[in-house]
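Quick one: structure tokens for this chain, please?
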Amino acid sequence: MEEGKRYYRLGAFVLLTLGILLAILFVLGGRSLFRPTFTFETYFKDSVAGLDIGSPVRFRGVPLGQVIEIRTSSAVYEKDVPPDKRRNYIVVRAKVSISGEEATAMERDVKEYVRQGVRAQTELVGVTGQQYLALDFHDPKKSPSLPFDWTPDYDYVPSIPSFAAQIVANVQTFLANLNEAQIKSISDNLNTLLVKANTQLDKLQVERLSADADGVLTDARATIARVDQILAHAHIDETLRRIDSASAKVDKLLAAPGLERTIDNAGVITDRIRKLVDSGDVDRMATRIADVADRLDALVGANQYDITATVGDLRSTAQNLRELSESVKRYPAGALVGGPPEKIVLPGSSK
């Protein structure tokens, strides 16, 4: 009985663990399994070198999904077709997985988009050689669908050659359409161009150009020689030694502890000033000074006449003090006793 309970508990533990693991997988990414996706395929007649499984798929530059399969038509649709009658296209399948709404809308409108001229084309990603699948609108008349005689497994989007393939095809078409008269005309034009080039070269004054070039080279050599002389006589070594000495002094100055303390003190003072400004004391002080100035202006305006009289009295007092000072200088004793002494009349004088 106890052994049966242990098996029951072990089975319940295993089931609970699997349930938790499935829940975690569903939360992390399992929901995408139930999200609708849209897969389409396109065919290329030329090489798709550089396009790999996982390469991006973009519609007019907007990311849509990625390439999920690259195969040949002979392996997918032409297994029972004789080799000499196979088309040997490259079958590229891509999945739109950016969102369920995008996939549903793309699946609903893909046939209308194809009718309006949506075509698939391989394009390079920078200069790395990697390619991605680009969807864009082109002229349907100039970009017809490749012929095939099977039913596609997914919605079909026609393709057009890459830009490089188009250039090569255009050049090949141009060369193939050339006839003997056109080739002769091109050859005559080239010969005429060469003759004109030779004529223009003959008209050039080669000797004068050569003499001018020699003169320029001579002047350049003279200039280089002067620069060498200047550098040879310049006190470059002494200048470098002075620069080294000044650099050493600057290093000592920067390494001095007093400079570090000064910087720290400046930082402390700056912090205090910032705190004082932030607290509003400076604004209140400025307001009080402005109030005091207004009061002083009012006081001076109300007592202007008294202030003028007081200033006049101060001037008279200063004048009296100046006269008293002069008297003290001439008659020091008179400042304490009285006026100046009487004049002494000597015998025999008239007065």
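The chain has a mean pLDDT of 78.
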